[in-house]
Specification:
The chain has 168 residues and is an alpha/beta fold. It has a single domain, classed as Response regulator (Rossmann fold). Helices cover 43% and strands 12% of the residues. It is built from six helices and four strands, in the order βαβααβααβα. It has a four-stranded parallel β-sheet with strand order 2-1-3-4. The longest helix has 26 residues. The radius of gyration is 15 Å and the shape is globular.
Length: 168
């Protein structure tokens, strides 16, 4: 593998059903990677802890909130997190502490557990560690959640950027 063929840094964002919060984070993080010119050096995916929505598109309110902010979430299809995600991913980002607990329960080794982090823990301005679930709320809550995700994803990307930047 040559320097130009370096394997991408793989991030998976995890929420409950993979139709609201984690698809937002996946799309937003991908946007930061592409805008930086390092899109080929990052692989951004998402998954849910449950299987209720497997194969479905993101919630329409998620797609609408992303669109209002200039992102495209229409290609997303929900999937459930599997043990293979521990192997395939460099970083597993939980959207709230309940997801973090579930993921720690599924981790088969200390190495698996060490890959798990809370998205909001990357944002020094965050007032909470949990991104609220907007599913039972109105469109305004989806916009608010997207703002939280953008802020934390920006901070996460800034932290990772030196490691994914190609060597001179």
């Amino acid at each position: 593998m040559t320097a130009s063929e370096v394997a991408p840094f793989r991030v998976v964002f995890v929420c409950t059903g993979n139709i609201c919060r984690s698809p937002m984070a996946e799309v937003v993080f991908r946007g930061f990677a592409d805008a930086s010119g390092f899109g080929s050096r990052v692989a951004s995916t998402s998954a849910g802890t449950g299987d209720w929505h497997v194969g479905e598109r993101a919630d329409q309110r998620t797609i609408d909130a992303l669109q209002r902010a200039g992102y495209d979430g229409t290609r997303h299809r929900a999937r459930q997190f599997t043990h293979g995600d521990f192997v395939r991913s460099d970083l597993i980002v939980a959207l709230d502490r309940s997801h973090e607990r579930i993921l720690h329960g599924w981790a088969r080794s200390e190495a698996d557990a060490d890959k798990i982090a809370l998205l909001m823990s990357f944002d020094p301005a965050a007032s909470t560690l949990d991104v609220p679930d907007p599913y039972y709320a109105g469109p305004g809550m989806f916009d608010e959640v997207l703002g939280m995700i953008e802020s934390a994803s920006r901070a996460l990307f800034r932290q990772l950027e030196p490691a994914i930047r190609p060597a001179p």
